[in-house]
Amino acid sequence: MFSRSYKAAVTVPPVVWVTVFLLLPYLLMFCYSFWSVSPSQTIVHSWNLANYSELFRVDVYWKTLLRSMWIAARVTIFSLLLAYPLAYFLSLHAGERKDLLYQFVIIPLWVSYLVRAYAWKTILGSDGVLNTLLQYAHLTRHPLEFLLYSPFAVVLTLTHIYTPFAFLPIYAALEHVPRKLVEASDDLGATPGQTFWKIILPLSIPGVVAGATFAFVLSLGDFLAPMLLGGPSGIMISNIVVSLFGAAYNWPLGAAISLCMLVLVVSLLFFSERLEKKWSFS
Amino acid sequence: MTTSEIAMASASSTGSKVALLRIQNVAKSFGKNMVLRDISLDVAEGEFLTILGESGSGKTTLLRIIAGFETASAGEVWMGQERLDLQPPYRRPVNTVFQSYALFPHLTVEENVAYGLRVAKRPEAEVSSRVQEALEKVRMAAHAKSKPSKISGGQQQRVALARALVNRPRLLLLDEPLSALDANLRRQMQVELKSLQREVGISFIFVTHDQEEAMVMSDRIALLRSGELEQVASPRDIYRTPATAYVAQFIGHTNLLKGSVQAGKARYGALVWPVALPDGPVLFSLRPEDIYLSPTSLPSNGVRVRGNVRHRAFHGATELIQVECEGGLTLVVRTPANGSALDEVELEFSPADAVLVRKSAERV
Question: Residue B264's domain spans which residues?
C-alpha cells in the first residue's frame, strides 16, 4: 500500500532517535556498572561485580532503596484513595459539570512541578503557613518540626503531584464501564453499594492498576521532592544516584544502582500490564 | 375513593383478568421535547403485551419508566396496591432483558444468572439449584462456565433471559431483545419466547418496532405513535379493525380509501357502496387480501371495478399486485401466487371489509 521510501521515511527517524537517545545511553550505563573508579578518580575499564556487591553490602544504599519503595507505596495508596472517589464521582455523578470539573483536575498538571514543590515548602516550613496558623489558633506552642524535612513532607508532596496521574486512567476506565451494566445490576435488585463492589470496581481494575503503576514508578524515581522537602531522613534513591554521578564521582556505582532501578521498574510495568490484560473484558 | 379503591375500580376495566400493572396518565419530556403524552395502559396478570412503535415513538422510554431508569414527568405507575414509580429500580419486582443483553463481562454465564439471587442474599444451595434450572430452561446449562464473550449472540440472549427469569419477577420487560439476531434465529426465538412465557406465566411487556413480531407473539398490542397510544387491542382486532389510518398502514398492507358519504352511499372515485354513516368525508381501510379477482363467490352485493395490472410483487405464497382501476384509482390486491398473468382484471370486494378508520392526527 505504501511505497518503500515512505515506509523508510516514517520508520527510520524514530529508530535512530531511540537508538541514539535511549539504547546507547542504557548500553553505556550497563557497561559502566561493571567498571570501577581508581583512587586517582579515573574510570578503570576492568569488568567486575564489585558495584553490585557494594550496593547490597553498604547499608545506606539498600536501606534507601527500601525507603524509596516504601515512600512510593504510600504515595500510591494515598493517590488511589484520593483519585478513585474523585474519578468515580466525576464519571458517574457529576452530570453536566463533568467537563468543567475534569479541567480542574487537569489544570494543576500545567503548573511546574518545581513551583508546586516549593509551595509545599512554604506551607510546611517552621515559619510556614501551617505552623503560623496552628500557633495563631493556639493549637501548638512551638512550630511542628516533623512537617518539613521528613518522609511525611515527601509523601504529601508526591501524593499531591501524582494524584492526577492516578486519576486519569481510573477516570478513563470508569468512563468505559457500559452504563447498561449498571442499569442491569440495578434492575436485578443490587443496591448501589452492591453494584459498586460487584460491577463497577471490578470493571475499573485496569484503570486502577495503570494509575497505581504511574504513581509508584514516578514517585520511586523522584529526586526533587526529597531534595527540597525530605531532609536527611527523607532522602530517596535518586538523590544518591545524583550525588554519585556528581560530587562523589562514582559513575560505576551510580550506574549499578540505576540499572537495579531500571530492572525493578520494567518488571513492575510488565507485571502491571499482565494484570491489566487479565482484568479487561472488552 | 382512596387511591387503592380507584386502583381496584380501574383494574376491573381490563375484564375478567386482574390488572398487574397500571400506567396512569404517564407523560415524559426531555427538556422541551415531549416524548410521551398521557399514556394510560393496564397489563393483566400473565399477559404478553407488546409496545409497538417506530424508532422515536417513545416505546423504550415507556419501558424505562416502568423499570425505573427514567422518572415520569407526570402520571403514576402502580403494581397492585403499590406505587411502583416511587421506588428505585432495585426495589421493583420487575426485571429487564436489555436490547444489548448487558451481560456482565467479568462474570461467567452461571455467575450472571446467579447475580440477582446472590445480591438478594439467597442461600447458596437455593441459588445453585435455581440457576441450574433456569439455565436448563433456556438450554444453556452446557455453557455455565463460559464468559459471555465466548458465546454467540443467540446464546447471550438466552442467558439474559435466564438471568431475568431466575428472579421470578412479577413482570418481565423486554427491550427489543431479538433485534440483534438473524432473521431465522429471530423467528425461532419468537416461538421459544412465547412458549416460555406461557410456561412460566409471568406477564411480559415486549418492546419492538417489528409489527410482524408483535402480531406473532402478543396477547395484546399497544401501538405508540410520537408518544401517544394510537390503539391497544389484540393482534386480530388491531389488524381487522384498525382505529386510525396510521394503525392500518403500520400493521400489514392496506388500501386507504379517502372518500365521502352522501345519502347513505360511500363514494370513492368510481366505486360506490351502501353504508350506514352520516354524510361527510370518510376514510376506509381495505386490506389487499379482501379484494378478489372476479369471478368470485362473493354475495351479489360486492363492489366491482375493472382495472389494469401495473406492478406485481412476488411474496412466495401470495403476490401483491397493483391495479390501476377505472377512474384513475390504484388498489393493491393480494392474490394467491398461482402464476395468473392477466393484465386486465376485474376486482371485487365486500363493503363489510372496508373498515372505517379515523384520520390520524398530524404529528411530527
Answer: 253-356
